[in-house]
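Query structure, 118 tokens:
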């Protein structure tokens, strides 16, 4: 039997090329072949959270899995299921939105670092 090794280990950072300007802490989504961009509202293609600012064409580290802390879009209460919101933020899940995790902390609109766990 042949051996198999995964390309990336869950919970570890990965590196991709930015296809648009990215701000540290934004949720990013797959935008093409080994490229990422800020995630749009209700994204099903989201990958993780950007580790630092990056310009289009730069390589950027993306933290996937684990506990993340992006910016809130609207009020979020600890225990709320959260979904990807516009501009790579998170918001309380609305009807029929896919949840990306559960908020571990309460945050007000635009407050940085609402923690969620995937």
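Result returned for the query:
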């Amino acid at each position: 039997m042949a051996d198999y090794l995964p390309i990336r280990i869950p919970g570890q950072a990965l590196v991709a090329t930015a296809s648009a300007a990215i701000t540290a802490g934004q949720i990013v989504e797959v935008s093409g072949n080994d490229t990422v961009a800020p995630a749009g509202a209700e994204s099903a293609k989201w990958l993780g959270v950007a580790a630092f600012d990056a310009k289009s064409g730069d390589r950027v580290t993306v933290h996937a899995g684990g506990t993340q802390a992006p910016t809130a879009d609207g009020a979020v209460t600890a225990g709320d299921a959260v979904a990807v919101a516009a501009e790579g933020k998170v918001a309380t899940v609305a009807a029929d939105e896919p949840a990306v995790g559960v908020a571990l902390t309460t945050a007000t609109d635009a407050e940085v670092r609402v923690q969620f766990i995937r």
